[in-house]
Amino acid sequence: MPHRYIKKILSANVYDVAVETPVELARSLSKRLANNILIKREDLQPVFSFKIRGAYNCISQLTQVQRACGVVCASAGNHAQGVAMSAKYLGINATIVMPNTTPDIKVNAVRSLGAKVILHGDSFAQAYAYSLTLVADLGLVYIHPFDDENVIAGQGTVAVELMRQIQGNIDAVFVPVGGGGLIAGIAVYIKYLRPDIKIIGVEPEDSCCLKVALDAGERVILPEVGTFAEGVAVAQIGELTFELAQQYVDEVITVTTDELCAAIKDIYDDTRAVTEPSGACALAGLKKYVEREQAQDQTLVAVATGANMNFDRLRHVAERAEIGEGREAIIAAQIPEQPGSFKRFCTALGERNITEFNYRYGNNSKAQVFVGVTLKAEEGGREPLLKQLASHDIPAVDLSTNEMAKSHVRYMVGGHASVDNEVVYRFTFPERPGALLKFLNKLGQPWNISMFHYRNHGSAYGRVLVAMQVPEEEKAKFEGYLDELGYAFNEETNNPAYQLFLAPE
């Protein structure tokens, strides 16, 4: 099998539309991590993503009969642009099915490349299902985003360039994983030439379809997929790509949203390029690997896969980057409700700076404050901060990994309401016209909404925190309504952030 793929990779036709991208030294990060950190700049492709390689290689090898039929794919972003540009260059009609939730910037980019865009469904799965009906009804040729030998071979040209561009030693190459096309192509080629080089996949914790599959020994469908890193938000690894990954991928590392934000900042600091979350995924995994292995003086390569970032999302990235880097902690602290308490709290922090301070009067004896605090690099994490506050008789709870606290509570005034039977849920629902109204119409009957906070930071999905007055005997019926809605949700009634700042006393 590897020989077949090697031949396909070496004969792949990509450079009619793709470019050979540079490998750049991340100088500041290399110094900080005491390793030689190199970044493969696939964000510099004409469509700002590596996807153009696989799409063009696949489409360019269609027969004349197939070309005359036209091509179709389902995609919310990078693959769509790769297919659209490839089809335009080759004079082939292209139809792209995109979810209704796709941001306008991506829809317009595809249309500007001459493709017909059909908006259908709220998720990739629904768009994909509809695209297959077009194959059946109209005879269009489907271009798969990852599970196709020619697509895999096209992506494998990244590895061909890497092996030519880096003449010296390479210890490991880190590759983002969605459906697995890129890592499959890179892994099979590099392992054929240099089996000593580690190939390490990197996935977000909330969409780690390859890691779950490798652990299970078979392909698994994730029940829910995180949407922050849209470029790798895939529920199931491909069939062909999984087979290759089992043979040639050494391990998979998972990263958090905050770690992705920190990696975006790292790439910006060294290159002045702003990658999308999936584009920074490999570097986030590289950093975790260095910390875990205490690696030094190694040559480590991260593939920066894309830069199709919505401008609105930069706000969220900036908020989370310092937390992801371990340079900021978010805590809830209890201080006496009396003059001078805030000054004494700042004194207890020593030389640390306060980046955020949220307070609302609670009662005459004590106050709960929501605080952001800078951390000293030499201290080694958040634990010394909590110990220092405890030594000054200031109880504190670490909320740095609490998603509800970071996405909602920090933006709410706070205060303990006098309501009965309150339950709290956190939702993610598609950003499209009518979604919020549908949500409210369904939940507002027959239960009363006692708290509501909605926030969107430029993604295709909105985030909502809702409190409802639901008697215990009606809770099963209530959750049945939630299941009917079809939106991802988590109960947060016992979340310490809610209990400390918002729950009835």
What's the CATH C level of the largest domain?
Answer: Alpha Beta
| CATH architectural type of the largest domain | 3-Layer(aba) Sandwich
Which of globular, elongated, flat, extended, rod-shaped describes the shape? globular
Number of domains: 4
Structural class: alpha/beta
Q: How many DSSP helices?
A: 20
The name of the CATH topology of the largest domain is Rossmann fold
Distance between the termini: 65 Å
What is the helical fraction, as a range of percent? 40-55%
Would you identify the regions where 5 or more consecutive residues have pLDDT less than 50?
none
Q: Strand order, biggest sheet?
A: 1-2-10-7-8-9
Strand tally: 18
The average pLDDT value, as a whole number, equals 89
C-alpha Rg (nearest Å): 25 Å
How much of the sequence is in beta strands? 15-25%
The major β-sheet equals:
6 strands, mixed
Task: Note the topology.
Layout: H1 2-10, E1 23-25, H2 27-33, E2 36-41, H3 51-60, H4 64-69, E3 71-74, H5 78-90, E4 94-98, H6 104-112, E5 116-119, H7 124-138, E6 141-142, H8 149-165, E7 172-176, H9 181-193, E8 198-204, H10 209-216, H11 239-248, E9 251-255, H12 257-271, H13 281-293, E10 299-304, H14 313-324, E11 328-336, H15 341-349, E12 354-359, E13 366-374, H16 383-391, E14 396-398, H17 403-407, E15 422-430, H18 435-443, E16 448-455, E17 461-469, H19 475-485, E18 488-491, H20 496-501
Parallel strand pairs: 2-10, 3-4, 3-6, 4-5, 7-8, 7-10, 8-9
Antiparallel strand pairs: 1-2, 11-13, 11-14, 12-13, 15-17, 15-18, 16-17
